[in-house]
Amino acid sequence: MPRTDRIHPTGEDTDDSNSNSTDTGTGTGTGTGTDTGKKAAFLRSGHRSRSLAAGFLLPALLLLGALVVYPIGYSVQRSLFDRSGSSFVGLDNYLALVTDDSLRTAARNNVIWLIVAPAVATALGLVFAVLTERVRWGTAFKLVVFMPMAISMLASGIIFRLVYEQDPDRGVANAVWVGVHDTFAESSVFPRARPLPVHPLEAAGGGAFVTEEPVRAGEPVPLPLIGVAPGNMPKEARPARAPDAAPDAITGTAWLDFTRGGGGRPNTVDPAELGLAGLRIEAVKDGRVVAETTAAADGTFTLPADRADGAVLRLPASNFREQYNGVEWLGPTLVTPAVIGAYVWMWAGFAMVLIGAGLAAVPRELLEAARVDGANEWQVFRRITVPLLAPVLAVVLVTLMINVLKIFDLVFVIAPGSAQDDANVLALQLYRSSFGTDADLGVGSAIAVLLLLLVVPVMVLNIRRLRREARR
After folding, report:
1. Rounded Cα–Cα distance for residues 365 and 372 (Å)
2. Which of 69, 343, 381, 409 is deepest in the core (most CB within 10 A)?
3. Chain center to CA of 398
4. What would the pLDDT profile of 103-118 be if each residue is shown by its tens digit?
5. What is the DSSP letter of 232?
6. What pLDDT does residue 34 have?
7. What is the spatial distance between Cα 250 and Cα 245, in angstroms, rounded to a whole number?
8. Secondary structure (DSSP) of 257-287
9. 3-class DSSP state for residue 461?
């Protein structure tokens, strides 16, 4: 390549290649210095950013350590010591969780809670969310279902303690149950009523009573009873009246042979005594009921002589059965399902709202395409809706599982003292072991650590699921 020369102002020849080489070297040196400065500035700004972030996070980290990390560490340490905290006992407190009957009951009930409560609440939330999607009043219905979430656990426990009262006059659940029962089953009129030994009646077995002698037309039949409190007499009851003799009928009077305040004569209708209104009376011949009637408000009754003459009169046992008082919701058998019912009442609305939000994001074209292809609503729900809602259902289910592992308030308030051992759960046992009359902080700390160990796997599964969804 030909050499190119030019005349320098000083009169010296200058080689262009050397000049270019010098310029390039100078430029490279300047660029390197600039890059180094930028890197230093970037590092300084990154250091300031990390320091700023650490300054903002420090209060939260201090609170986390004081309120979470330290209590967990102290609970683990305390669970290894005895009741007084002075002697190291190792794993003895954890072995007590297996050997103690009340602790085993609490663990068993926690398993029942973990399986039943989240599943039922999630299922009801799914049903409510799907069914209210197409109705005009769906928003109002969702508001009503979600409203219990605004009530505290303590208030809900007080409400359901009243709902589950054994007395049908106070407990809503038993009032409804007794009403349905009495609709299909005949209720007794005079429970515990009975005759005195001097009365002309005798026991016939099975709770019934019969006359000692067959009855005859024209001879009035007295049927006196005792054992009914005057205040429990039917409202329609009137003062008893002795019947008139009728030659073509069997007549008589059934009355409460008791005079308020004392006095009166047995087997005689006194003016202050009331008739047994509504008492069932049967005429029985050769083991068959040939006629039957019901006592009037004043206790009088009449049976046709052509059928009842020569029969014995029977007062069937249905007159004297104990009144049905409903179900013992808070008894040893049903107390745990009853408390779970209160929990579901509170948290079904939470599940419904979350599932409803997920349902709003389901592509409608998929549902319509399935219907066009001939799928019925159940198939659309089972094959399309539920699979698409699976992530939301998992969130709701895991959240409720974590929540029921900590359940305490409802069990403590709803379960009466006589049934609290049967309704016991780990969180309640933790309270009883730590602060009860026979407090043992070592066992209480062991229960707290056990609850933590039960919650951690569920939280780990939930975090992994959230990460998987974030990577999609």
Report:
1. 10
2. 343
3. 18
4. 888 889 999 999 999 9
5. G
6. 65
7. 8
8. ---TTS---TTS--TTPBB-TT-EEEEEETT
9. helix
CA-wise closest residue to 458 among 110, 218, 75, 59? 110
Report field, pTM of the whole predicted structure over 0.85: no
Query: The tokens of 368 are what?
Result: 């319509």
Tell me if 125 sits within 8 A of 379, measured CB to CB: no
Rounded Cα distance between 214 and 28, Å, is 135
Confidence (pLDDT) at 214: 92
At 396 the pLDDT is 92
Please give the CATH number for the structural domain made up of 103-177+329-437: 1.10.3720.10
Phi first, then psi: give them for residue 148, nearest 5 degrees: -60, -20
Indicate the average pLDDT of the chain.
Answer: 84
In the chain, CATH 1.10.3720.10 sits at 103-177+329-437
- Answer whether residue 273 shows pLDDT above 80: yes
Contact predicate 309/215, CB 8 Å: yes
**One-letter amino acid of 126:** L
Among candidate residues 238, 235, 232, the one with its CA nearest the CA of residue 253? 238
Residues 6+ away with beta carbon under 8 Å from 409: 152, 153, 154, 157
CB neighbour list of residue 250: distance below 8 Å, 6 or more residues apart: 215, 216, 217, 221, 283, 302, 303, 304, 305, 308, 309, 313
